[in-house]
Amino acid sequence: MKPTLVILAAGMGSRYGGLKQVDGLGPNGETIIDYSVFDAMRAGFGKVVFVIRKSIEKDFLEVIGNRFKGKIPFEIVFQELDMLPEGFSCPADRTKPWGTAHALWVTRNVVKEPFAAINADDFYGYDAFRVLAEALSKPDLPKGTYFMVGYRLGKTLSEQGYVSRGVCTTDDKMMLQTCIERTQIERLNGKVYYKNDLGDNVEVDETLPVSMNCWGLTPDFFKYTEDMLSGFLSGSITNAKAEFYIPTVVNKLLVERKVTCEVLPTFAEWFGVTYPGDKPMVEGRLKELFDKKEYPSPLW
Q1: CA-CA to 223 of 20 to 30 Å: which in 17, 150, 200, 251?
Q2: For residues 21 and 97, what is the distance between their CA atoms, to the nearest angstrom?
Q3: 92: alpha, beta or left, given left = phi > 0 and alpha = psi -120 to 50?
Q4: pLDDT tens, 225-270?
Q5: How far apart are CA 25 and CA 122, in angstroms?
Q6: Contact residues for 189 (Cβ-Cβ < 8 A; gap 6+)
Q7: What is the CATH number of the domain that holds 247?
Q8: Does any domain span residue 298?
Q9: Which domain holds residue 214?
Q10: Is the whole model's pTM more than 0.90, yes or no?
C-alpha cells in the first residue's frame, strides 16, 4: 500500500499577510503545494489529503483543486475550531487554529495507512519525499515506527524575522531522543537564539537537526494524539494563543518509550515563506530550479 501525504494548509498566514497556501511563486504561478505534490507523486505516494479551513475552501479549490482534479487522488478535510474531542467546547473568543497536531487529528477518519505530514508553505525538495516514501512503504511497518526528515537549524532561518522550530537531539544511530518546539528563533549578532517562557533569549546550536514538520507516521498516532489533546485542552483551552504541536506529541511518546522515530538525512534544501519579504527569495530559488531543469514549468 502506498503512503498518503497530508498537507497542513489551514494556517492563518498572519505574519505573511494573506493566503500563502495559494500564492503563485513558481515561474508559471506554481504554488509551493504544487511542488510538494509533484515531488510526492514521483517519489511513490498514493494520494494527498489537504487540511484547510472552510473559510478558504473557495479560493483553495479555485487554485489547487482545478489543477489536481482527475490527475491525482486527493481529499479535503476541514480543521475548524469547534472540532474537539467529546466533552470540550471552543471558547467564543478563540480565533487561532489549535495547532499542527490538532490539524493531523482531524484527518483520522480518512487516513488509514502510513502517512507523511508537511506544511503547505514549505518547500522540502524531492529527496525529502523520496526518503519518506521509502521508509513508509516498508512491508508490515510496525505501529509506532515514526520518521522525521531532519534539516540543520541554521539553514532554516528567515532574514525577515523570527521563526518556530522543533529543535531535536538524536543518539548515535540517528534515532530521535527529543523534539522540543522552540519559538521566536532568530539570528542575532551572528548567533542563534530562541525565547524561553520568561521572554529571555537562550542561545542554541545552529547545527542541531530541526523538524520542519516533515514527518512520517503510522495511524496509531491519531489515538495517541486524541488522548494528549484532551489533556492539552483541560489545561489550556482558555489560553487564546496556546497551540498543540506535532513535536509535543512525538516527544511525549518518545519519553514514554511508546514509539521510535528515526531522523532521516536528506540532501534536499528547505526554504519557505513566513513573511512577505521571503517571497522574492522563494521566487528566485524556484526559478533557479527550473533553469537547472530539476522541475518543468508548468508542473501539470
Answers
A1: 150
A2: 15
A3: alpha
A4: 999 999 999 999 999 989 999 989 999 999 999 999 999 988 888 9
A5: 12
A6: none
A7: 3.90.550.10
A8: no
A9: 4-291
A10: no
